[in-house]
Amino acid sequence: MTRVSLMGMEVDRVDEREAVETILDAREHDRGGVVLTPNLEHLSSFRTSPEVRAAFDEAELVVADGMPLVWASRLQRTPLPGRVAGSDLIWSLSEAAAERGRSVFLLGGNPGAAERAADVLRDRAPGLDVAGTACPRLGDGADDDAVLDATAARLARARPDLVYVGLPMRKTFHAVARLRAAAPRSWFLGLGQSLSFVAGDARRAPALMRRAGLEWTWRLAQEPRRLWRRYLVDGLPCAAVLFAGALRERATGAMRS
To answer: What b-and-e string marks burial along 117-150, b requiring 16 or more CB atoms within 10 Å of the CB?
Structure first.
């Protein structure tokens, strides 16, 4: 499996089917890991935060959730097969896990979202073994350690094959770093808002907008106060830097050839 470098972030050159097979085949060999699904927000933080950079560098599988990453890879002539969105991967991986008799643990989301999402996934993937759900309330205080210790104890008892983590980016990195020791053979997937989508707490953009790379405009329209800075202040400048870097890489590659 090869990787594509985008502004220093190494992204695996796999499509959604290959990502599912990579995860479950590794689990068949008793290996765990971490899957991260970067978009422009992650890439922007990757450039400035050592913590974020370390999380991506250490992940076993990194797949492009954001379409700008796919476009940039094509622009620099190292094309990724396509977008592998966490909100799509949760469906295909759950169906494949059910077929292989693998278990999942749902972690995060709003209160009650993980339980509702578990019911929906069981309906979509008959026979899916849901090993447990949890909604740890993580803030920025000392209580986080106690919350994560309790969650780790639950994971150690449940021993799930897959852990879907539906927390904000930095909380995901912090939680996974703490929880992996409790379930070293599990695969932890940072899936952002996917549990809320599955549970019906939030609506995804129409398929046409997703294919066109305009899902961010849909989310911005839904939550302008919360997301305007993420997309307009941080995201757009990061996209400009990303595409400029892709053009430079393309020119450098042409000179080498």
So the answer is: bbebbbeebeebbbbbbbbbebeeeeebeebbee
Tens of pLDDT, residue by residue over 92-147, are 999 999 999 999 999 998 888 999 999 999 999 999 999 999 988 877 666 788 88
What span, in angstroms and rounded, lies between the C-alpha atoms of 172 and 240? 27
Cβ partners under 8 Å of residue 224, min gap 6: none
Q: Please name the residue that has the structure tokens 């068949």.
A: 28
Kindly provide the residue ranges of all beta strands, DSSP E only, lying in the chain, ordered along the sequence.
3-6, 9-12, 33-36, 61-62, 103-108, 129-134, 162-166, 187-190
61 strand-pairing partners: 35
User: φ and ψ at 105, to 5 degrees?
Assistant: -130, 130
How far, in Å, are 70, 73, 142, 177, 201 from residue 209 at the CA level?
Answer: 15, 20, 41, 34, 20
As a dihedral over the C-alpha atoms of residue 166, residue 68, residue 88, residue 20, rounded to 10 degrees, the angle is -90
Residue whose C-alpha is closest to residue 34's, from 198, 184, 192: 184
Provide the token pair at 170.
């930095």
Q: What is the CA radius of gyration of the chain?
A: 18
Q: How many angstroms from the chain centroid is the CA of residue 23?
A: 13
Question: Do 85 and 95 contact (CB within 8 A), yes or no?
Answer: no
Q: Which of 90, 37, 40 is nearest to 65 (CA)?
A: 37
